[in-house]
Amino acid sequence: MTQITMGILSQELAAGERLPSTRELARRFHLHANTVSGAYQQLEAEGWVESRRGSGVFVRSIRPELRSGSGPSGFPRREQAMEYLLSGLVQSAQSLGISRVALRQHLHEWLEVQQPDRYLLLEPDAALRRIVIAEIEQATGQLGSMPVSGCALDDPGLAEALSGALVLALPSKAQAVRAALPAGVEVMTLEICSLTSALAALLPAPTDSLVGVASPWAQFREVARIMLVAAGFHPDSLVFRDCLEPGWCHGLGEVAAVVCDTFTATQLPVGIKKVPFTLLAEESLAALQRHAQGIGSL
Q1: Pairing state of beta strands 49-52 and 56-59?
Q2: One GO MF term, please (predicted)?
Q3: Which of 32, 131, 192, 231 has the fewest beta carbons under 10 Å from its own?
Q4: 1 — pLDDT class (breaks 50, 70, 90)
Q5: Would you say the pTM of this structure is higher than 0.70?
Q6: Is the same domain home to 50 and 156?
Q7: pLDDT at position 112, please?
Q8: Domain range spanning residue 266?
Q9: Among residues 124, 112, 129, which one has the least CA distance to residue 164?
Q10: Tens of pLDDT along 50-74?
Q11: Could you give the CA distance from residue 36 to residue 134 in angstroms, rounded to a whole number?
Q12: φ and ψ of 165, to 5 deg
Protein backbone atom coordinates (compact mmCIF):
# COMPACT_ATOMS: atom_id res chain seq x y z
CA MET A 1 0.00 0.00 0.00
CA THR A 2 3.01 2.28 0.33
CA GLN A 3 3.18 2.31 -3.48
CA ILE A 4 -0.37 3.62 -3.64
CA THR A 5 0.35 6.41 -1.16
CA MET A 6 3.50 7.42 -3.01
CA GLY A 7 1.65 7.27 -6.31
CA ILE A 8 -0.87 9.75 -4.94
CA LEU A 9 1.86 12.03 -3.64
CA SER A 10 3.71 12.03 -6.96
CA GLN A 11 0.41 12.49 -8.85
CA GLU A 12 0.96 9.27 -10.79
CA LEU A 13 -2.43 8.35 -9.36
CA ALA A 14 -4.79 11.23 -10.13
CA ALA A 15 -7.66 12.40 -7.95
CA GLY A 16 -10.76 10.38 -8.76
CA GLU A 17 -8.81 7.54 -10.35
CA ARG A 18 -10.18 4.06 -9.72
CA LEU A 19 -7.73 1.71 -8.01
CA PRO A 20 -7.35 -2.04 -8.69
CA SER A 21 -9.87 -4.25 -6.94
CA THR A 22 -9.00 -6.14 -3.78
CA ARG A 23 -9.03 -9.43 -5.69
CA GLU A 24 -6.79 -8.05 -8.45
CA LEU A 25 -4.17 -6.74 -6.01
CA ALA A 26 -4.23 -9.93 -3.98
CA ARG A 27 -3.58 -11.98 -7.10
CA ARG A 28 -0.87 -9.61 -8.39
CA PHE A 29 1.15 -9.57 -5.16
CA HIS A 30 0.26 -13.07 -3.92
CA LEU A 31 -1.51 -11.76 -0.82
CA HIS A 32 -4.61 -12.84 1.01
CA ALA A 33 -7.65 -10.80 0.00
CA ASN A 34 -8.30 -9.89 3.63
CA THR A 35 -4.83 -8.35 3.85
CA VAL A 36 -5.48 -6.11 0.85
CA SER A 37 -8.96 -5.23 2.09
CA GLY A 38 -7.54 -4.22 5.47
CA ALA A 39 -4.90 -2.06 3.81
CA TYR A 40 -7.54 -0.30 1.71
CA GLN A 41 -9.60 0.32 4.84
CA GLN A 42 -6.58 1.86 6.55
CA LEU A 43 -5.87 4.06 3.52
CA GLU A 44 -9.46 5.24 3.62
CA ALA A 45 -9.28 5.92 7.36
CA GLU A 46 -6.19 8.07 6.79
CA GLY A 47 -7.89 10.02 4.01
CA TRP A 48 -5.98 8.77 0.96
CA VAL A 49 -8.80 6.92 -0.79
CA GLU A 50 -12.57 6.54 -0.64
CA SER A 51 -14.68 3.49 -1.30
CA ARG A 52 -17.86 3.79 -3.34
CA ARG A 53 -20.44 1.09 -2.90
CA GLY A 54 -20.70 -1.01 -6.03
CA SER A 55 -18.01 0.98 -7.87
CA GLY A 56 -14.70 0.29 -6.09
CA VAL A 57 -11.96 2.27 -4.41
CA PHE A 58 -10.93 5.71 -5.72
CA VAL A 59 -8.23 8.29 -4.99
CA ARG A 60 -9.69 11.14 -2.94
CA SER A 61 -9.81 14.59 -4.51
CA ILE A 62 -8.26 16.12 -1.37
CA ARG A 63 -5.25 14.30 0.01
CA PRO A 64 -4.36 14.38 3.72
CA GLU A 65 -1.59 16.53 5.10
CA LEU A 66 1.69 14.74 5.62
CA ARG A 67 3.20 15.15 9.07
CA SER A 68 6.51 14.20 10.58
CA GLY A 69 6.54 10.74 12.09
CA SER A 70 4.66 7.68 10.94
CA GLY A 71 1.03 6.87 11.58
CA PRO A 72 -0.33 3.78 13.33
CA SER A 73 -0.50 1.90 10.06
CA GLY A 74 3.17 2.45 9.28
CA PHE A 75 2.35 4.27 6.04
CA PRO A 76 4.94 6.79 4.82
CA ARG A 77 5.70 9.89 6.79
CA ARG A 78 6.79 13.17 5.21
CA GLU A 79 10.49 12.28 5.26
CA GLN A 80 9.85 9.00 3.43
CA ALA A 81 7.73 10.81 0.87
CA MET A 82 10.55 13.24 0.15
CA GLU A 83 13.00 10.35 -0.21
CA TYR A 84 10.69 8.72 -2.72
CA LEU A 85 10.20 11.87 -4.77
CA LEU A 86 13.91 12.76 -4.79
CA SER A 87 14.81 9.20 -5.75
CA GLY A 88 12.47 9.44 -8.73
CA LEU A 89 14.08 12.74 -9.75
CA VAL A 90 17.59 11.22 -9.65
CA GLN A 91 16.51 8.18 -11.63
CA SER A 92 14.83 10.35 -14.29
CA ALA A 93 17.96 12.51 -14.57
CA GLN A 94 20.18 9.46 -14.97
CA SER A 95 17.95 8.09 -17.72
CA LEU A 96 18.51 11.37 -19.58
CA GLY A 97 22.28 11.19 -19.13
CA ILE A 98 22.41 13.97 -16.51
CA SER A 99 25.11 13.43 -13.89
CA ARG A 100 24.42 13.83 -10.18
CA VAL A 101 26.88 16.74 -10.02
CA ALA A 102 25.05 18.61 -12.78
CA LEU A 103 21.68 17.79 -11.22
CA ARG A 104 22.80 19.02 -7.80
CA GLN A 105 24.11 22.30 -9.23
CA HIS A 106 21.02 22.95 -11.35
CA LEU A 107 18.65 22.08 -8.51
CA HIS A 108 20.50 24.43 -6.17
CA GLU A 109 20.32 27.27 -8.71
CA TRP A 110 16.66 26.56 -9.43
CA LEU A 111 15.71 26.72 -5.75
CA GLU A 112 17.66 29.94 -5.29
CA VAL A 113 15.83 31.82 -8.05
CA GLN A 114 12.32 30.51 -7.43
CA GLN A 115 9.71 33.11 -6.54
CA PRO A 116 7.62 32.55 -3.39
CA ASP A 117 4.63 30.37 -4.19
CA ARG A 118 2.50 31.14 -1.16
CA TYR A 119 1.83 33.79 1.47
CA LEU A 120 2.65 33.41 5.17
CA LEU A 121 1.07 35.91 7.56
CA LEU A 122 3.00 36.28 10.82
CA GLU A 123 0.52 37.56 13.39
CA PRO A 124 0.17 36.46 17.05
CA ASP A 125 -3.53 37.33 17.38
CA ALA A 126 -5.38 34.28 16.02
CA ALA A 127 -8.68 36.15 15.47
CA LEU A 128 -6.99 38.97 13.58
CA ARG A 129 -4.98 36.42 11.60
CA ARG A 130 -8.17 34.71 10.47
CA ILE A 131 -9.69 38.00 9.29
CA VAL A 132 -6.62 39.07 7.30
CA ILE A 133 -6.24 35.65 5.67
CA ALA A 134 -9.90 35.76 4.62
CA GLU A 135 -9.39 39.16 2.99
CA ILE A 136 -6.27 38.01 1.14
CA GLU A 137 -8.01 34.87 -0.10
CA GLN A 138 -10.97 36.92 -1.28
CA ALA A 139 -8.69 39.37 -3.13
CA THR A 140 -6.37 36.82 -4.77
CA GLY A 141 -8.40 33.61 -4.94
CA GLN A 142 -9.24 33.88 -8.64
CA LEU A 143 -5.83 35.10 -9.77
CA GLY A 144 -3.48 32.18 -9.31
CA SER A 145 -2.27 29.41 -7.07
CA MET A 146 -1.04 31.46 -4.11
CA PRO A 147 -2.34 29.81 -0.94
CA VAL A 148 -2.12 31.79 2.28
CA SER A 149 -1.52 30.52 5.80
CA GLY A 150 -0.54 32.12 9.07
CA CYS A 151 1.13 31.54 12.39
CA ALA A 152 2.85 33.36 15.26
CA LEU A 153 6.57 34.00 15.58
CA ASP A 154 6.82 31.45 18.38
CA ASP A 155 5.12 28.71 16.37
CA PRO A 156 7.30 25.55 16.45
CA GLY A 157 6.72 25.00 12.73
CA LEU A 158 7.83 28.50 11.69
CA ALA A 159 11.18 27.46 10.15
CA GLU A 160 9.46 24.99 7.84
CA ALA A 161 6.61 27.39 7.05
CA LEU A 162 9.08 30.05 5.86
CA SER A 163 10.35 27.87 3.04
CA GLY A 164 9.02 29.17 -0.29
CA ALA A 165 6.81 31.78 1.36
CA LEU A 166 6.42 35.52 1.01
CA VAL A 167 6.10 36.75 4.59
CA LEU A 168 3.33 39.24 5.37
CA ALA A 169 3.02 41.41 8.47
CA LEU A 170 0.74 44.16 9.71
CA PRO A 171 2.30 47.58 10.43
CA SER A 172 2.29 47.19 14.21
CA LYS A 173 4.20 43.90 13.99
CA ALA A 174 6.42 44.44 10.94
CA GLN A 175 9.48 45.61 12.88
CA ALA A 176 9.32 42.70 15.33
CA VAL A 177 8.83 40.23 12.48
CA ARG A 178 11.86 41.52 10.56
CA ALA A 179 14.00 41.42 13.69
CA ALA A 180 13.02 37.82 14.46
CA LEU A 181 13.54 36.37 10.97
CA PRO A 182 16.85 35.38 9.36
CA ALA A 183 18.60 38.02 7.27
CA GLY A 184 17.45 38.09 3.67
CA VAL A 185 13.87 36.94 4.30
CA GLU A 186 11.52 39.25 2.41
CA VAL A 187 8.70 40.78 4.46
CA MET A 188 5.78 42.69 2.94
CA THR A 189 4.05 45.13 5.26
CA LEU A 190 0.28 45.24 4.77
CA GLU A 191 -1.24 48.67 5.21
CA ILE A 192 -4.49 49.17 7.13
CA CYS A 193 -7.37 51.37 5.97
CA SER A 194 -9.64 53.61 8.03
CA LEU A 195 -12.98 52.49 9.43
CA THR A 196 -14.59 55.86 8.63
CA SER A 197 -15.35 55.05 4.98
CA ALA A 198 -17.10 51.82 5.94
CA LEU A 199 -19.47 53.73 8.24
CA ALA A 200 -20.66 56.04 5.46
CA ALA A 201 -23.49 53.62 4.64
CA LEU A 202 -24.91 54.13 8.16
CA LEU A 203 -24.78 57.92 8.24
CA PRO A 204 -26.54 59.99 9.33
CA ALA A 205 -26.85 58.08 12.59
CA PRO A 206 -30.42 56.80 13.14
CA THR A 207 -31.99 57.72 16.47
CA ASP A 208 -34.42 54.83 16.80
CA SER A 209 -32.52 51.80 15.44
CA LEU A 210 -30.09 49.29 16.85
CA VAL A 211 -26.75 48.71 15.11
CA GLY A 212 -24.75 45.52 15.57
CA VAL A 213 -20.97 45.13 15.73
CA ALA A 214 -19.71 41.60 15.19
CA SER A 215 -16.17 40.25 15.02
CA PRO A 216 -13.99 37.61 16.70
CA TRP A 217 -11.32 40.31 17.11
CA ALA A 218 -11.78 42.33 20.32
CA GLN A 219 -9.90 45.35 18.99
CA PHE A 220 -12.22 45.56 15.97
CA ARG A 221 -15.25 45.73 18.26
CA GLU A 222 -13.65 48.42 20.43
CA VAL A 223 -12.54 50.59 17.50
CA ALA A 224 -15.98 50.24 15.91
CA ARG A 225 -17.61 51.34 19.19
CA ILE A 226 -15.44 54.45 19.41
CA MET A 227 -16.04 55.40 15.76
CA LEU A 228 -19.81 54.81 15.91
CA VAL A 229 -20.23 56.88 19.05
CA ALA A 230 -18.09 59.64 17.53
CA ALA A 231 -20.32 59.54 14.42
CA GLY A 232 -23.41 60.19 16.55
CA PHE A 233 -24.68 56.73 17.49
CA HIS A 234 -25.92 56.41 21.05
CA PRO A 235 -23.92 53.84 23.04
CA ASP A 236 -27.13 52.09 24.11
CA SER A 237 -28.07 51.52 20.44
CA LEU A 238 -25.01 49.37 19.80
CA VAL A 239 -25.21 45.57 20.05
CA PHE A 240 -21.86 43.76 20.26
CA ARG A 241 -21.18 40.13 19.36
CA ASP A 242 -18.01 38.08 19.81
CA CYS A 243 -18.07 35.55 16.96
CA LEU A 244 -16.04 33.08 19.02
CA GLU A 245 -18.92 32.65 21.48
CA PRO A 246 -21.70 30.09 20.90
CA GLY A 247 -24.93 31.56 19.58
CA TRP A 248 -23.35 34.89 18.70
CA CYS A 249 -25.87 35.49 15.86
CA HIS A 250 -28.82 35.42 18.26
CA GLY A 251 -30.73 38.72 18.24
CA LEU A 252 -28.93 40.26 15.25
CA GLY A 253 -32.08 39.94 13.18
CA GLU A 254 -33.49 42.88 15.18
CA VAL A 255 -30.73 45.38 14.27
CA ALA A 256 -30.78 47.76 11.32
CA ALA A 257 -27.33 46.65 10.16
CA VAL A 258 -24.23 44.85 11.38
CA VAL A 259 -20.78 46.39 11.14
CA CYS A 260 -18.35 43.49 10.76
CA ASP A 261 -15.07 42.30 9.34
CA THR A 262 -15.02 40.53 5.98
CA PHE A 263 -14.67 37.07 7.54
CA THR A 264 -17.69 37.58 9.81
CA ALA A 265 -19.68 38.89 6.84
CA THR A 266 -19.51 35.40 5.32
CA GLN A 267 -20.85 33.85 8.54
CA LEU A 268 -23.88 36.10 9.07
CA PRO A 269 -27.30 34.63 8.26
CA VAL A 270 -29.02 35.61 5.02
CA GLY A 271 -31.32 38.58 5.43
CA ILE A 272 -29.17 40.59 7.81
CA LYS A 273 -27.83 43.85 6.37
CA LYS A 274 -24.04 43.75 6.53
CA VAL A 275 -21.65 46.67 6.56
CA PRO A 276 -18.34 44.85 6.04
CA PHE A 277 -15.13 46.67 6.83
CA THR A 278 -12.07 45.64 4.83
CA LEU A 279 -9.11 45.80 7.15
CA LEU A 280 -6.40 45.87 4.47
CA ALA A 281 -5.86 49.01 2.41
CA GLU A 282 -6.60 48.85 -1.31
CA GLU A 283 -2.93 49.47 -2.08
CA SER A 284 -1.87 46.34 -0.21
CA LEU A 285 -4.60 44.20 -1.76
CA ALA A 286 -3.61 45.46 -5.21
CA ALA A 287 0.05 44.57 -4.55
CA LEU A 288 -0.96 41.05 -3.51
CA GLN A 289 -3.13 40.72 -6.61
CA ARG A 290 -0.26 41.76 -8.88
CA HIS A 291 2.04 39.26 -7.20
CA ALA A 292 -0.52 36.45 -7.54
CA GLN A 293 -1.06 37.30 -11.20
CA GLY A 294 2.68 37.23 -11.82
CA ILE A 295 3.07 33.81 -10.19
CA GLY A 296 -0.02 32.44 -11.96
CA SER A 297 1.42 33.40 -15.34
CA LEU A 298 4.70 31.53 -14.81
Answers
A1: antiparallel
A2: DNA-binding transcription factor activity
A3: 32
A4: low
A5: no
A6: no
A7: 64
A8: 197-277
A9: 112
A10: 888 888 999 887 766 555 554 544 4
A11: 42
A12: -115, 145
